[in-house]
Amino acid sequence: MAMVGRDGMPDEVVDEVVEAQDARPPGREAEGTDVAGEFARRRESLFAVAYRILGTRADAEDVVQEAWLRWSRVDPGEVEDPRGYLFRLVTNQAIDQLRRVRARRESYVGPWLPEPLLTAFEVSDPSGADGGPDVGRQVELAESVSMGLLVVLETLAPVERAVFVLHEAFGYTYAEIGAILGRTERGVRQLAYRARQHVQARRPRQRPTASQHREITERFLAAAVGGDLGALMDLLAPDVTMWADADGRSETPREALHGAVVVARYLASVREFWPDGLGVEVVEVNTGPGAVVRANDHPYLVFALELDGQRVQTIRAVLNPDKLAHLR
């Protein structure tokens, strides 16, 4: 199973960076600049930005790889701020990529959900700055990769989304973002204001503790897999909402389900359709409570949950095999 840090990048991409060292033009080593090393030091942060802008691991990996190819052709002696240069590369490429994939997402069958990441909380400074961990920033970063917030960010224009991610999650100033996007500071402030107002109106509820994650998630999984209608009714919030992302490849609801009775009856009704060889693992999905359900050791679906006290407020089920391939 592929595992990444909370704002990290998949380890397999490191191999591509190392292999690409030999492709750099002659004379780099003589200049005293470790081109591959500079990129490797930033790669987790670059993936973190790309994923938050795009919402899919595969697209974020493509953007980061393209950034590496471009960086490997640049004369580092002419780059005063490597970190700023790399963030500018990735951010603008991610915006362009988001514009391209938006058309595909509009024709998606049923609800579209972000590609889930299995995460683990790690203390790190994605900006690459020195010093101890900033606990407040850690919380902001964790929230910025949550499934609920990524869904909200889908409703923003690509540039607004990039501004929100860079400022709210990574602490870039408006002037710095203006330099990255080629816009004025005033223009960036206006974009940030619109994005923040939009997000605040739809922001997911407060996150529960890790202990609540496991206890409630385990009870929910037992009730869902067992088709226990009574237990589901006890666990689901009265106004619970459920989305299922399968892109038409599974018989799942094409619209969101609302209300404890409707959601509980649906989950209980599909008990007989669960595949054979079922295995369930409680995990952290996008820094929130969740689970991976496997059928004969192959990923079948990922649950991402939002909790409200002791009840499940939101259920997001990702069944599209394309979004689960990295979990093999």
From TrEMBL:
Coiled-coil blocks: none
Pfam families noted in UniProt: Sigma70_r2, Sigma70_r4_2
Keyword set, alphabetical order: Sigma factor, Transcription, Transcription regulation
Extract the GO molecular function terms from the UniProt entry: DNA binding; sigma factor activity
Q: Which domain of life is it from?
A: Bacteria
- List, alphabetically, the PANTHER family matched: ECF RNA POLYMERASE SIGMA FACTOR SIGJ, SIGMA 19 FACTOR
Q: How does it assemble?
A: Interacts transiently with the RNA polymerase catalytic core formed by RpoA, RpoB, RpoC and RpoZ (2 alpha, 1 beta, 1 beta' and 1 omega subunit) to form the RNA polymerase holoenzyme that can initiate transcription.
Protein name as annotated: RNA polymerase sigma-70 factor (ECF subfamily)
Originating species: Actinopolymorpha pittospori
